[in-house]
Amino acid sequence: MDIIINATSMTPIYEQIVDRIRALIKGGEIKAGEPLPSVRGLARQCAISALTAKKAYDVLEQEGLVVTVQGKGTFVADVSPNIVAEELNRQVEEEFAQAIAKARRLQLSDADIKELVTMLLDDTDDGTDGGTGTTDRKGATR
């Protein structure tokens, strides 16, 4: 399991670990029942405090993504597809909220924001660039 910590990030280290392990679980790279490194092993691997590693595992356990068995270790939980879907929806909502906040800081009106979202949805529906190109307000992709 490869976890890279960005020491200069504004995101706390334990959250970086949680995000990476969550992504590995949801991406199917680590499966239900697979053991995770011990708290001390993770701390050693990431060159962090064991308390930070423990906090990351505690968050994952609260989310239902891992289970800890006393004396045996921490294992990936058998995660239901509903939990995965809910978490993915939450992440998308968070990203939309950040994008809307940025648009409002740039003084775009709600109507302009809705128009942009509709335009991006139309781009992905018609099989064109999947929303990755730059599109002007008239719908021309540049």
Automatic annotation (TrEMBL):
Keywords: DNA-binding, Transcription, Transcription regulation. It comes from the Bacteria. The lineage of its organism: Bacteria, Bacillati, Actinomycetota, Actinomycetes, Bifidobacteriales. It comes from Bifidobacterium pseudolongum subsp. globosum. Coiled coil: none annotated. Pfam families: GntR. Residues 11-79 form the HTH gntR-type domain. GO terms for molecular function: DNA binding; DNA-binding transcription factor activity. Residues 122-142 are annotated as: Disordered. This is GntR family transcriptional regulator.
